[in-house]
Amino acid sequence: MSPPTPPTDKSRTSLTFRQIARTGRRYTNPLVSVGHWRRRALLVAAALLAGLVAIVVAIGAERAIEVHARMIAAAPWLSLLVTPAGFAAMAWMARRFFPATQGSGIPQTIAASLSPNPEVRGRLLSLKIAAAKVILTLGGLLAGASIGREGPSVQIGASVMHSLAGRRFGRIASSRNLIVAGSGAGIAAAFNTPLGGIMFAIEEMCRHHAFRANSTTLTAVIFAGLMSLGILGNYTYFGSTPAVLSWPSGIWPVLICGAAGGVLGGTFSRLLVASARGLPGRVGDFATVRPIAFAATCGLATALIGLVTGGATYATGYAESKAALEGITPLPFYFFAAKMLVIWLAFVSRIPGGIFAPALAVGAGLGSALAGLSPGNAVPALMILSMVAFLSGMTLAPITSFVIVMEMTANHEMLIPLMTASVIAYGFSKSVSPRALYDALAVPALERAQAEAGAHSSTRQNSDAT
User: Fold this and answer.
1) Topology agreement, domain 37-232 and domain 251-446
2) Which branch of life, at top level (predicted)?
3) Full-prediction pTM beyond 0.85?
């Protein structure tokens, strides 16, 4: 057998040109592919829609809070009727028609990202659920419930992006990546915090798997943020807060706020997780047997606390926190404790609504109380530090916490103190509540959705058999 003929210079040149041509086609084909640009356009349109809905929720929330505030200012006793009735109505509608809307919405979104079953995901995220979440959250705020719009914005954004999953639109991205991207877009548009949205997607939504939704998340956050800029302008949630700390004496407020916020946030997280499993004794039996009446009772307790505190504990606590940060109206020393109580009441009533924004108000109240114990320090600085610390301690998401608060207050001078307080709070909270709040709440949400999907599948099989 004759040996193989070695390639000539001409054949080598021809092979090189063929390789270059194949490589060029690989990179240029998507640029001229109608299907590729159609999928990109759908992704951008979904991100814009997610941002638009989050903005609608933001504007609607402000209007609902204003209406409630005017009503209570005119006749404070009306809260004894309106708040229990509102709690009962929101709890009944959520329980009867839209079970997946109950609570924050972030645990449901995390649960959907963990499930490989499309039917389970569809029971947690859908356009129908998103529309109901908007209406029920605004209804709760109109009734004076201490709930936020960040959790609903996450579930709404994830629902909108998840609607692109499946074969009908082609392979835009995996369902999990779309859910992660939608959650980041919801946070970014809700508070004009694009970096916070990205960090939330990475740190909170991807605890159990690697973050692979890089381009999808960036696209969603950018276009949702552009929608927010186009409608609301370049605003900061708490305005501009030029609070600073002097060094090295400033290390003590950072340590104190970090430790106090971490312990309090971890304790509150543990309370919420335990309450989600069920309340003890006769109260738990009452909540299980008569959930709507129990929700009305929670509403009545919320109204009574609101009356005692002069209306300071209603809704998100945004107005009270902003006024205190700007030095207009200081927060009373008991504000953080009263706010935690009304947040817990809204949580155990299972009405739709988040706990993220109200938690910032708790942190502001804690900082104000700590400032009273150390009058030599600037009150706004301690409030910002405690906001970060309590949020980090409650969620065990230290990077997301300091990034979001930094963007909300437009205070880059406090970056290092905020980072330090967040990490300290994370360490203290870990010793109190080792498991992250939303991660722990996602487990029962996933189990319920799986049970419902399994029951529906069994019913359908039995129907087909008969």
Assistant:
1) yes
2) Bacteria
3) yes
